[in-house]
Amino acid sequence: MADVIESARTLKSRAMDARDDEDFEGAISLLSQARRELERELHDLEPKRADTGSPGRFEQEVAAQLAHILGSMGGVYRRQKKYPASIKFYDDGYNFEDPKAPYGIVNSYNLTQRLVSRVFLNPRAVDEPGSIVEGLPLKDALESARREIERQRAGSRREDEYAAADLAIVALLRGDVDWRDKLDDFLYSEPEPQPYAVQVTLDVLVELQGRLAETREGSPEFRNRVAKACDEIRRKIGA
Known about the structure:
The structure is a single chain. By secondary structure, the chain is mainly α. It contains eleven helices and two strands; from the N terminus they run H-H-H-H-H-H-E-E-H-H-H-H-H. The protein folds into two domains: 1-105, no CATH class; 142-239, no CATH class. The protein has helices at 3-20, 24-45, 49-52, 57-79, 83-97, 109-121, 138-153, 161-174, 179-187, 195-215, 220-237, and strands spanning 132-133, 136-137.
């Protein structure tokens, strides 16, 4: 049974190699295979929940891995600049992370990236109250995301560097007065964040900076925030 999770991890690793080689179709194919395997396993596990009323630990692990695979698919589509597809897969992943879902997953990966991809699609929306992007009022969704990530960080994710990174990104997009503080909380936390966590955060923001330059959209204040965040992370890693 646990082999399905290990298989998904292996397929994801191969998919990320393909993505880095810009073989996007190959990456999506591998991730789609992992998705199908996990969905089949989840479908087989669901009837067993009728006896207990809640998912068991293994079902939770399968659901969490599926959420991560769906998010990875969203990331590949974003690399291809296929933003509506990216949003769809991040949304699908979030459906498993949602606190209202039955799985008890405490994570903010898809929660954050589904909003980041909406900003890629419409950079102006961060500065436009009431702007709806792919069915979500972005400003309200960002406010809700901040509250949820803060709730998670007050509990089991208190020392989770990825939660700190997600909070920094959401604060940055919102233009909160403490966005620099939240970024510093992530970059200069104790224990020091893993280099990979710092690099993937920089990758997202550099990609966003490129999108803002490409579209010439977004307010000067927003573009300046993103540029300053990129510079700060580069200083941290000595790049």
